[in-house]
């Protein structure tokens, strides 16, 4: 097991409804040293891709994005989940369905922060069915920006977001892929060699 | 002017309604090197206070909190603005009024992440009337946690959040205090020596 799989195995909690709680280190309380290691791993993988921006969606993606961007020495841009009064000017917008909340929401990003000149690394804490990630890709397509890679902390491998993205040709790195989870039997990680 | 005041003066934009747009480096696109400098400054100020957690509110506080926590080698805990399905167990809750959106919202924090053992540094990107910060302080009071300091990137000094907090005895560090802003005359920063 790698460092993230070990941490999930020791501190993650499996709950009914395929919920994997990692709130003690990844999305409520944040272990910044762990996040830094995640960022460093993404950097090692994508450092030669000419990436000039790290893109994510608020809120829990922001921490991983910042740690990753420190290694690349590039800015983070995060898409927002609600139209803010302070977001003016032209916006890219994509509609995302949240299974957690069972509703649609918009992700928006100011056009001035993404263009066809950009080569971006997309990052997020979780990838399951991939709705949020597809929203980010949609925004990149609208901007004409190049998606140079996708870095995910935890992929739920029993849902199809990851396989769809790889099938569409995206270079996806998931540090931990959970292929099965059960409240009693625990977690099964995919062997990624 | 310090590094943040210089950046605000060069890249910030004053809009009608006392809106200071800093979305090109602080809360939509994030300049991680600038955020790192902000975090380092908070560390220099509060490093001898025995701080064991950095506390903030999602979403834009997360980036500053992570950069700050890296220096302290402590975790970040961020309060959430909506009750999430994935936030179970006992929660601290405080009601916050947003002037930007003119509505009340709850900030919540899982009780397991804050207790009377904790000495926390509260951080946020903006301090104006201080509603979000008061929500965080309320949560700390509920937990019996000690507020060892408050680190703010930009304080709107013409609103009373900062003076109220200082008057109540909190040790507030605002890297840039904007005492006046005008679409034509620009920004006036408070001389902090």
Automatic annotation (TrEMBL), chains A, B:
<comment type="subunit">
    <text>Homodimer.</text>
</comment>
<keyword id="KW-0808">Transferase</keyword>
<comment type="pathway">
    <text>Purine metabolism; XMP biosynthesis via salvage pathway; XMP from xanthine: step 1/1.</text>
</comment>
<dbReference type="InterPro" id="IPR000836">
    <property type="entry name" value="PRTase_dom"/>
</dbReference>
<comment type="similarity">
    <text>Belongs to the purine/pyrimidine phosphoribosyltransferase family. Xpt subfamily.</text>
</comment>
<keyword id="KW-0963">Cytoplasm</keyword>
<keyword id="KW-0328">Glycosyltransferase</keyword>
<dbReference type="InterPro" id="IPR010079">
    <property type="entry name" value="Xanthine_PRibTrfase"/>
</dbReference>
<feature type="binding site">
    <location>
        <position position="156"/>
    </location>
    <ligand>
        <name>xanthine</name>
    </ligand>
</feature>
<dbReference type="GO" id="GO:0005737">
    <property type="term" value="C:cytoplasm"/>
</dbReference>
<dbReference type="GO" id="GO:0046110">
    <property type="term" value="P:xanthine metabolic process"/>
</dbReference>
<protein>
    <recommendedName>
        <fullName>Xanthine phosphoribosyltransferase</fullName>
        <ecNumber>2.4.2.22</ecNumber>
    </recommendedName>
</protein>
<feature type="binding site">
    <location>
        <position position="20"/>
    </location>
    <ligand>
        <name>xanthine</name>
    </ligand>
</feature>
<feature type="binding site">
    <location>
        <position position="27"/>
    </location>
    <ligand>
        <name>xanthine</name>
    </ligand>
</feature>
<feature type="domain" description="Phosphoribosyltransferase">
    <location>
        <begin position="34"/>
        <end position="157"/>
    </location>
</feature>
<dbReference type="Pfam" id="PF00156">
    <property type="entry name" value="Pribosyltran"/>
</dbReference>
<dbReference type="GO" id="GO:0000310">
    <property type="term" value="F:xanthine phosphoribosyltransferase activity"/>
</dbReference>
<dbReference type="GO" id="GO:0006166">
    <property type="term" value="P:purine ribonucleoside salvage"/>
</dbReference>
<dbReference type="InterPro" id="IPR029057">
    <property type="entry name" value="PRTase-like"/>
</dbReference>
<comment type="function">
    <text>Converts the preformed base xanthine, a product of nucleic acid breakdown, to xanthosine 5'-monophosphate (XMP), so it can be reused for RNA or DNA synthesis.</text>
</comment>
<dbReference type="InterPro" id="IPR050118">
    <property type="entry name" value="Pur/Pyrimidine_PRTase"/>
</dbReference>
<dbReference type="GO" id="GO:0032265">
    <property type="term" value="P:XMP salvage"/>
</dbReference>
<feature type="binding site">
    <location>
        <begin position="128"/>
        <end position="132"/>
    </location>
    <ligand>
        <name>5-phospho-alpha-D-ribose 1-diphosphate</name>
    </ligand>
</feature>
<keyword id="KW-0660">Purine salvage</keyword>
